Amino acid sequence: MSIRRLPPELINRIAAGEVVERPASALKELVENSLDAGATQVAVRLSAGGLERVEVTDDGCGMRPDEMRLALERHATSKLPGDAIDQVTSFGFRGEALPSIASVARLTLESRVRGSDGWRVEVDHGVPAGEGPAALPPGTRTRVEGLFDKVPARRKFLRTPRAEYAACLDAVKRLAMARSDVAFTLDHDGRRILTLQPSDAPARVAALLAHELDRNGIGIDVARDGLRLTGVISLPTFNRGVADQQFLFVNSRPVKDRLLVGALRAAYRDLLARDRHPIAALFVEVPLDEVDVNVHPAKTEVRFRDASAVRGLIVGGLRRALDEESQRSAAREQAAAPVMWTSSASYDAGLNGHPRESGDPPSSSPFEGRQAPAFAGVTGVAEDQRLFDHAPAARAEPAVEAVPSYPLGVARGQVNATYIVAEAEDGLVIVDQHAAHERLVLERMRAAREGGAVARQALLLPEVVELDEPDCDRLEGAASELADLGLDVERFGASAMLVRAVPAALGKTDIPGLLADLAAEIAELGGALLLRDKLDHVAATIACHGSVRAGRVLSVAEMNALLREMEVTPRSGQCNHGRPTWVKLAHSDLEKLFGRR
Ligand SMILES: Nc1ncnc2c1ncn2[C@@H]1O[C@H](COP(=O)(O)OP(=O)(O)O)[C@@H](O)[C@H]1O
Ligand SMILES: [Mg+2]
Q: Does any ligand 1 atom lie closer than 6 A to the CB of residue 12?
């Protein structure tokens, strides 16, 4: 075996394997370079999803000819003047992108510094392919053609132009959200796809996420211990079958970080079914020395010095916002309900409920909501007639004269032993009795726990759990609250905790995992929200079994009691899986159904 130093072309090809995966990753690097160059306008042009051509033009600082040649060499960068890699504010800093891309494609770099002439340098698969004068306004134009054309091993991992285009669009959207102060255009195969004027972050996010989020989104702005979280998230009822509408940023850098994605997921834990995903654009700001951006070649992952604090800020902040919103919507009447009713006629059924292939480009309306079943009663009169041949499946109560002003109205009857029909001042309310009761039981159990009545299970052998010192400090500080919830922990040396008892409701549980999650939660709340959530998980299952099942006949008194309890219970507008527990058909909706309006 003989050891040799690899030739530079091969080193670049190897690096390209990490940095350039597909046209979208090359595009991302080029746009980042434009932004780092101080561009106020970035124009992106693609052909065949970027497989044929990716071109980025900017009005940034430009490069002189000698700088252009240097830029194409490996580890050449203008972005680390002081060698301070822990203080990076630019997107790039590794000096790898251009030589890597140039090693697996044809790359044309044209650039002009203000006050001098333009120049062009070409490289074909790592080999210089000529240079000369170029005519262009101040700034830089970088063109990448035939990516992986001569690298069959990589070429075969590329997907259809359509799927590659979707990935490119996603990359542009992320960077455009990160830098709302910069104007962007995107053209694909000669068609203008995006035109974005400089704006503030909320306006830019609104322009790039579908407008439905105006009504179905919750604005976020929380700060704690030098960390700040801003952005927008969707109501639990406004969700998607794929997690493709989650835009996460750390200090304006778009990331696809597992910690952040996990925290977002955790915030929605008992509000969404497992296979449904929220929509979110979230911006995390942390002090530069609290985060390491140099852990991933494409810089899409970061490492936080205090990951627990970041996770805690996100889970706690979003959770509070979701709770507040659910109380608001329960009080004013569920915002999504009228939409679902009126939309049953106009909805594009192909879009709804069927997750699109994640690579497909978004349509004009990329959002999905949970759709209420179509109101069968208005369609077939002949069919309905047959109902009267059978004993009716619904019971009705005689109407009283005045309808007292309860938001959910007074019970008028039960349909199919599953749905409660109630009359409210402003319309007709239909309640899914099982879904509603399940939520009530869960919230009751929650309240009991908060009252301190939790059974604990002593461990035969206390368990030692090793953790970071800051996490141990947090758990130790919260030991008495944890004990109230049935979890007995004590400090065991510098970086371990001793667990003597766990809440009985948890049964056999992953204790180290529980403690790690708890420490993260405490970082934000100084309390034990996560334990509460874990118990909720168990509680939700118990609640489901303990609930009024669909199919049970209820008395009027029982129905009214259920409605009254729903009105005063937080989060009662959604079942434990995020589906609505009730819908309201306003008088105006009824009039529309019967063509009176
Ligand atoms: N659009 C551009 N405008 C001005 N300078 C650029 C542009 N693109 C690249 N450069 C220069 O080329 C260098 C190398 O770019 P790159 O290979 O992406 O590495 P990095 O961005 O990590 O520095 C940059 O540091 C920058 O000086
Ligand atoms: Mg770069």
A: no
Q: What share of the chain is helix, strand, coil (3-state, %, to 5)?
A: 40, 25, 40
* Averaged pLDDT, 513-532: 65
- Rounded CA-CA distance 77/452 in Å is 59
Cα separations in angstroms, 146 against 28, 72, 184: 17, 18, 24
Residues with CB under 5 A from ligand 2 (ion): 33, 92, 97
In sign, the C-alpha dihedral spanning 173, 179, 181, 183 is: negative
How confident is residue 71, by pLDDT bands cut at 50, 70 and 90?
very high
> Alpha helices of 526-595 — where are they, by DSSP H?
529-546, 556-568, 587-593
Dihedral over Cα of 26, 31, 36, 37: its sign? positive
Q: Which residue do the tokens 């009126």 mark?
A: 342
* Lowest-confidence pick of 450-454, 490-494, 538-542: 538-542
* Cα 219 to Cα 375: distance, rounded to the nearest angstrom: 33
Sign of the alpha-carbon dihedral angle for 267, 269, 271, 276: positive
Contact 168, 46 (CB under 8 A): yes
The residue that leads in pLDDT, 461 or 133, is 133
| Residue 77, pLDDT above cutoff 90 | no
Structure tokens belonging to residue 15: 């690096």
Q: Which residues pair with 250 in a beta bridge?
A: 253, 284
Helix (H, G, I), strand (E, B) or coil at 476: helix
Would you say the CB of residue 92 lies under 6 angstroms from ligand 1? yes
| pLDDT-derived band at 8, boundaries 50, 70, 90 | confident
CA of residue 209 to ligand 2 center, whole Å: 27
User: CA nearest 277: which of 264, 287, 286?
Assistant: 264
Residues in the chain: 597
* Distance, CA of 274 to CA of 398 (rounded, Å): 42
Q: Where are the alpha helices (DSSP H) in 128-160?
A: 152-155
Task: Among 55, 77, 112, 143, say which to mutate for ligand 1: greatest number of ligand atoms within 8 Å of CB.
Answer: 77
Q: Is 94 in the pocket of ligand 1 (CB under 6 A)?
A: yes
